[in-house]
């Protein structure tokens, strides 16, 4: 079986002006822009995407958005579509992030429409799932994740399923400094892999990368990234500085 290439994606959230973003991208490109052992993606806010795309040109670092609408165009004030993202060289899009689910009311059904639209437009969704603290404490983590995965990927064909990246992000670990233990993370990753087997069959499920997200830092990354079903990281806070982000890429590259 071909090993899955590790993927490190930086979710800048609502941070960085266009100029700040270009400066960060330049530093990242200078450090890891030529390596190809690890797939590296930066996800700036919409306003910084196009300038970041120019700064990434000629490097191996890819560009991701943090959200999109499921329609291609139309009367949806304030929204951005998959073809618009594709037109400025975006290759990835984060969908169903817990902040979108909790602050903007995104449901599994809406996330599902977005996942399908992204795949049909040749954008690779970084599809996020994860339980809240209350859900973990009540023992319903796997049930919650199962529902999110099954509903979020409903109607996705085996063929399109190959284009997905899943991110397991326990909500209680995002931006809190509380990282999941390697056992907690690996358990859920293996469980998600099993769900993908049921949805898409073994060969596709073995190809899909499952990222961990939630306070991943250079200090805790090596242990997490060494787990069998952890294929990379979706990084928030530590992606805002080139030094820590580059260290995470190097940590992923060091896993054999
Ligand atoms: C995220 O927002 O996807 C995330 C993982 O954030 P942080 O790394 O800051 O916890």
Question: Nutshell version of this structure?
Answer:
The chain contains 12 helices and 8 strands.
Task: Give the key terms.
single chain; 256 residues; alpha/beta; TIM Barrel; eight-stranded parallel β-barrel; 14% strand; globular; binds phosphoenolpyruvate
Any chance you could write out the topology, listing elements then pairs?
Elements lengths: L6 E5 L6 H15 L6 E5 L2 H11 L5 E4 L16 H6 L4 E4 L2 H6 L4 H13 L3 E6 L3 H5 L3 H12 L5 H4 L3 E4 L13 H19 L1 H6 L1 E5 L7 H5 L6 E4 L6 H13 L2
Parallel strand pairs: 1-2, 1-8, 2-3, 3-4, 4-5, 5-6, 6-7, 7-8
Helix pairs in contact: 1-2, 1-12, 5-7, 7-9
The site of phosphoenolpyruvate has 13 residues, from β8.
Q: How would you describe this structure to a colleague?
A:
The chain has 256 residues and is an alpha/beta fold. It has a single domain (7-40, 61-70, 77-206, 215-253), classed as Alpha-Beta Barrel (TIM Barrel). 45% of the residues lie in helices and 14% in strands. It contains 12 helices and 8 strands. An 8-stranded parallel barrel has the order 1-2-3-4-5-6-7-8, surrounded by 5 helices. Helix 5 crosses helix 7 (141-152). The mean pLDDT is 97. Phosphoenolpyruvate is lined by residues 11, 169, 174-175, 213-216, 234-238. The site of phosphoenolpyruvate has 13 residues, from strand 8.
CATH architecture: Alpha-Beta Barrel
Total strand segments: 8
Count of helical segments?
12
- Indicate the low-confidence ranges by residue numbers: none
The biggest sheet amounts to: 8 strands, parallel, barrel
Tell me which ligands are bound. phosphoenolpyruvate
Which term fits the overall shape? globular
* CATH-derived topology: TIM Barrel
Structural class: alpha/beta
> Percentage of helical residues?
40-55%
Total separate domains = 1
CATH top level class name:
Alpha Beta
Oligomer: single chain
Question: Would you tell me the overall average pLDDT?
Answer: 97
Q: CATH superfamily membership, which one?
A: Aldolase class I
Distance between the termini: 14 Å
């Amino acid at each position: 079986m071909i090993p899955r290439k590790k993927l490190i994606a930086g979710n800048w959230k609502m941070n960085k002006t266009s100029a700040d973003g270009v400066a960060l991208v330049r530093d990242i490109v200078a450090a890891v822009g030529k390596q190809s052992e690890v797939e590296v993606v930066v996800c700036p806010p919409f306003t910084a995407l196009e300038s970041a795309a120019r700064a990434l040109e000629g490097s191996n670092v890819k560009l991701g958005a943090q959200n999109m609408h499921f329609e291609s165009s139309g009367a949806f004030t304030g929204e951005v579509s998959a073809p618009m993202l594709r037109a400025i060289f975006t290759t990835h899009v984060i969908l169903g992030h817990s902040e979108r689910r909790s602050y903007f009311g995104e449901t599994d059904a809406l996330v599902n429409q977005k996942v399908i639209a992204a795949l049909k437009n040749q954008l690779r969704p970084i599809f996020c799932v994860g339980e809240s603290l209350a859900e973990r404490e009540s023992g319903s983590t796997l049930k919650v994740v199962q529902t999110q995965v099954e509903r979020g990927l409903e109607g996705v064909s085996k063929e399109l399923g190959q284009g997905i990246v899943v991110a397991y992000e326990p909500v209680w670990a995002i931006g809190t400094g509380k990282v999941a233990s390697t056992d907690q993370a690996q358990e859920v990753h293996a469980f998600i892999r099993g769900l993908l087997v049921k949805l898409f069959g073994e060969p596709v499920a073995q190809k899909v990368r499952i990222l961990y997200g939630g306070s991943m830092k250079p200090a805790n990354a090596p242990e997490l990234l060494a787990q069998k079903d952890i294929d990379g990281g979706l990084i928030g806070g530590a992606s805002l500085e080139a030094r820590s982000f580059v260290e995470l890429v190097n940590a992923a590259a060091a896993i054999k």
